[in-house]
Amino acid sequence: MRTRLTPMQQAVVDAGRPLPQLTDPLEVELLVSAFVGPFADNEELWEVVVHHLKEVPSRRSAALLTALGHLLPGRPGGWAKEAAREQGAPVWDMGALTFGECWIGDRSIDAGYLALLCSYAYGDEPHAMVFMIDEISGGLTRHAFLTRRVEEALERLKGQVRLESITAEAAHWLLSRSYDRFERRPGLGFGLDVHHTRLVARRRIALAMN
Questions:
Q1: How confident is the model at residue 80 (pLDDT cuts 50, 70, 90)?
Q2: Pick from 79, 99, 98, 77: nearest CA to 32
Q3: Residue 145 CB coordination number (10 Å)
């Protein structure tokens, strides 16, 4: 007998409908992070959703399980990754992510924030995440957005703050501390960009730290 889903569980499954048609792993990350983020730590929800997707093999189930396996933290990510192995792989490969240069600019004295740009790539397609870390509010991430125009974003930051090169490990260690503080105080009025890209950023932090 097929697992019965609550409306919220069904909504999560339905949100994965576009995934088999996508070819860009970055687009997959952004889509899944945006709709999964608010429920990412709900183990009860993911236990049921993953079990349902195992019961109903399809291109959508395989794609959603694969994405969840990369993005969900803790045990739910492990459940999804294991279940995905039993189904066909999607055309996009989230495992092909590579790290590039990272830059930091300190405006904590006059403007109260650190600016951090971290670059990445999927094959020959680069992208970057730009973070504004609010030093006045205890080092929490105030804004986080993703761009494919890496050089343009770097030049714009250079026009606002003096940038220095930083290793990927050091940059993501700093981000880890910032996101830990943010997640302990999720009710603060930060931009939706932080919430929508939270799992995208968290995945990169975990990969860099490991």
A1: very high
A2: 77
A3: 15
